[in-house]
Amino acid sequence: MPLPSFHLCQSVRAREKPRLYQLQKRNELLPYAFFTRCARTFSVLLLLLPAARPAVLPRGRFALKIRDDSQSASAPATAVAAPATAITIPDIDHPFIAPGPDDQRGPCPAMNVLANHGYISRNGIVTFEEVVNGMMEGFNMEVHFAAGLAALNFVSRGNVFANKISIGGESPLVPPSPGNIDGNTTFGIAKHGRFEGDASISRADAFVGNNRAFQQPVFNLNLLELGRLGDNGVDGNNTVVNVPTLIAMEKRLFATDQASNPKFEFAARRMFAAYGQAAFLMTVFANGTTNQTTLPILDSIFRNETFPPNWYRAAVPVTGATNAKVSGAILAGIPEHVPGRNNDQGVFVADPLPPPPFNSSLPCAGYFDQAGNTPATLVNTTGIFKQNVDFLVKILFAGASANPGCTQLQEPFGPAGV
Ligand code: HEM
Questions:
Q1: Does the C-beta of 362 come closer than 6 Å to ligand 1?
Q2: Buried b vs exposed e over 15-49: b needs ≥16 C-beta within 10 Å?
Q3: Which of 55, 197, 258, 396 has the greatest number of beta carbons closer than 10 A?
């Protein structure tokens, strides 16, 4: 018999509709109070992520509800309170199948793993709802956190009108946005410059190498730090990821790429994302039974792009606050890193601070910087297109405003067609 959560997600998938606005109809923004509760937990916050919430937000496990107008308003809420136990992933219905030549894969190990196991479309072309459900089902990501991550990528590299994004490069299955308002191609998440950036854990910088596929030499830089600083565990000494390992990794990735990439950029949005992604190693990829991320787990997810053997997803949903605890520790552990970029002489120069209130924290600066790298043309859309844009923009602000002082919504104001 399928597990309740699997059944839930399947039922949501079956009802999936191609327009985000249908999701919006049944959702409202997360009340500010929720975020302030999270915010009080941590002195340094990295919470550009949470998002829209279902009209009914039950305790325990829940899934995004998507209903269209044909459904009765009195339809019962789909909610199952599951016990806080880890569930083995993948289940029998999600075997690993290596991608075919036409399947899209890209720089996100989590997206690649989910697609290789069919938790999201194996061809790598996904909808907003599908990718949120996939993150919840495969990695037990909390719904607001998952929706925030998806929103960030949809506004920067997806087709918001068609509700499609490629988890790799451009694809004929993702048409350009109506009116070609962002050029005549929707590139996909692998395209450098808006969200994809430098100093990645397992990919080369776009200017000097392959920023899309796994690069063993880059990944080895992290393994050196794990071998030096990792905790001891069942898989051997110095094999368990801890915060000092993540700090050392981020220092080394920055130093290596800053020296080797003349066009090295580590703007606020990238710094914020890079630390958040490093934190995922400890929060999302940990085996839910041990709460440890070990060398074989990293190897399986990053290099083989498959769930590790005997792996259990987190016992309780991974929230933005959970991740912020780790990414905040990375930020605090590298005070010498500031947002900036190399100049023509290869010297790293700090970027100017954003205007208030966006200078109030790194997450807020990252939020502003990301909006400045999301096409302004999205704002002048109409109809369903505009509703979808607004829905996603509000999701992003809901996350950013979790950070004290980050009180102003910023609409996209970046260039199109890049
Ligand atoms: C379960 C949720 C997710 C997890 C655990 C996750 C994890 C990660 C990790 C660890 C990296 C760093 C890879 C590296 O530096 O080599 C990464 C990068 C990336 N992710 Fe994800 N991710 C998630 C969701 C998403 C979603 C929903 C999208 C878009 C649809 C996405 C798009 C990206 C992109 C574009 C990068 C490349 C960033 C860069 O290195 O320049 N991720 N992700």
A1: no
A2: ebeebbbbbbebbebbeeebbeebbeebebbbbbb
A3: 396
